[in-house]
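Lay summary. Proteins are chains of building blocks that fold into shapes, and those shapes determine what they do. In this project we predict the shape from the chain. Here is one chain we studied, written as its sequence of building blocks.
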Amino acid sequence: MTALTLSTSGAATLRADAIVVGVAKGAGSKAASKSGDLVVAPGAEAVDKAFDGKLASVLETLGASGAEGEVTKLPAPSGLKAPVVVAVGLGSVPEKDEMYSAEALRRAAGAAARALSGSKKAGFALPVEAVEDAEAIAEGALLGAYAFTEYQGTKADKTEKPGKAAGNGAKQPLAEVALLGTKPRDKAFKAATERALALTEEIKRARDLINMPPNDLYPESFAAVATAAGKEHGIKVQVFDEKALVKGGFGGILGVGQGSAHGPRLVKLAYTHPKAEKTLAFVGKGITYDSGGISLKPAGHNETMKCDMSGAAAVFAAVVTAARLGLKVNITGWLALAENMPSGNAVRPGDVLRMYSGKTVEVLNTDAEGRLVLGDALTRASEENPDAIVDVATLTGAMVLALGNRTFGIMGNDESFRTAIHEIAEEVGEQSWPMPMPAELRKGMESSTADIANMGERMGGGLVAGLFLQEFVGEDIAWAHLDIAGPAYNDGSPFGYTPKGGTGSAVRTLVRLAEHTAAGDLG
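And here is the predicted shape, written in a compact code that computers can read:
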């Protein structure tokens, strides 16, 4: 894991492989220096002085524009201990009396950290006007310092020094992040960076799980990871194996998992605090591989389906983070784990499953399996009467069509709670959008055979899925559904602090929700 320090050194005297500074575009008073439309952001004064006040001019000559995420490397002059200066774009200069946004700092730090893969240590001299700025920079740098190399190179490669390339040439992440311009002895700064370290380490664990190949990550092995983490962090873990699921009548989870050689699991993680006054339940879809089942996905649509457990990974990471932070709130995480495979034992289109709630579901499409495992988990979570339930799932391609690859949709049975989730997501830098739940779409799921079908109208498919899930939420419990099908897995190029592959989407939102609940901010 990447180390994080609050350095007492200045940018000029820090011994590191590189010093990271911020640049922006546009005129502005908050600048270390400027040239034309390029502005060197605060925090880089010592670096600019080493360039005789001409850092902006030099960067502009090299083609730097200050655009968000743009990275420009240049050799450092003799006045700096570090041999390299990395200038990263922050976007537009803030208006007068405004600061660079936390998300701008987070993304810039992440882009710089990615550009420094293979390095041992880098100092980050980005604008810090408040403790929140330092926390955002720490989060971005630590999230950007990520690579999934578990299956690359030999075992000998794993024991080499930090920064050493794997056998195929892939570089290891930046080994140490040193934050400059902070107050290292200030309790608030220490607490903020400790939070950032705990949060990002668990997001990285979620990313690792999402990126793990499905021949190694299946319901039983995922449950084992959760059990081990529970022992480490004082979380009570209960695993419902196939025998327990049959005894309990979890027909949705069993139905989805019956076609696989790897049996399904339902995992309960219970974090409690003696002074907690509220209880949250987080429910995650954990399809460790989704072939579509008998309704088989075509070629081109199944290659990344190891990521269909991203919701369960997010819930797992959020519960562990809450435990590490000692939040004064009780949180129960439910991981609904199954592998959706075609076989002679697989559920068929036309089959009817009796869910844990007692409700029967006609399966019209076996590739609409996530809602089946979530239905059972939502009912079980509701039995404990939490103050609120949030489920997280890579549920529908329809949500990706509606909102794109970087934004998750939010639905719910309580408008104020849905709004609160949206505001929290925006607060932590996760793009989201509230979605409706039109009552008229419920009719499309009527079945002449069962209580409800697992499919409805094709148009508005993401909304139909939300309506299906609502059927399994207990009465008078505030509930929100996060469809993270778009941002959970980045199949394109990395950007900001977001890598290629698993992203850890929704973890930050869930953790901040838990923090607000612990503080009594959500009623």
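What the prediction tells us: The chain has 15 helices and 21 strands.
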